[in-house]
Design brief:
single chain, alpha/beta, Rossmann fold, seven-stranded mixed β-sheet, two-stranded antiparallel ribbon
Length: 286
Amino acid sequence: MHITTMATTRIRRRFHKWLRTMQGNPHVLPSHAKSISGSMESYLDVCRTASHNSKTFGNFRRNPAYTEVLEHVSQQQGQEYLRLLSPASRARQNIAEAAKNDDIGNPATMRLDSGLRISPTTLRYLKVADDMEKLFGGASLDGANVIEIGVGYGGQCRILDSLFKIKHYTLVDLNPVLNLAAEFLSNFPLSCTLRFMTMNELSPQPYDFALSNYSFSELSREVQDVYFAKALQHSRAGYITFSDIAPAAFRQLTRDELCLRLRARILPEQPLTHSKNCLVVWGQAD
């Protein structure tokens, strides 16, 4: 059975409502509405406020405007992510360490059989880390130069830093999102060197690994082409959770076009959170 959420439907409905208001203005879509998260001013307002207001920051992962975009992973999905973790993986062996993410922002949590409380979102980040270790090998990530496109509040970055000996980690998003991620990550001792960049601040350079949880696939083709030229085509390996919820006006790269450009292959998303989702991976170990 496919696991879906009402949140996906809400995001799609809100996005198309916003898009209808933009019809007739050819400049807004390419210059402002770079992604679904970019179209949600209420979400960005939470990011802006939480990055400098301690009260808002202390509860941002429960803010309805924020959870409509992030932090809407269900407990059912969380249980599936937990079940799918490989028994001997770094992710499985370090669940308690990952749960420290949830000391920040007051997220909704679930109780595991061990008594540990952890958010379903953190379990999803662990599942991504588990996939990366299975596909690429943990040793290949040790010492790596990583770029993440679309960073949320920095939760995936913090999980990967705790599991692997990553050398450099570049986080790329809109400025309000980056500011919130910087505030979140400042609460943890990290081994890697961080860089916070907007798309326009990036310059083409090689990366060992590129990562994007949904965000890249929800951008307009114009913006995807920029990220491809600046980052993806220079990345030795990568992992993109691909979704297909952007409207036709975005002319986003199809998964087949992306695979052709990257010499990548398609793997199933597990658990499947939307009927058209998949993983696009390249450079993985055979």
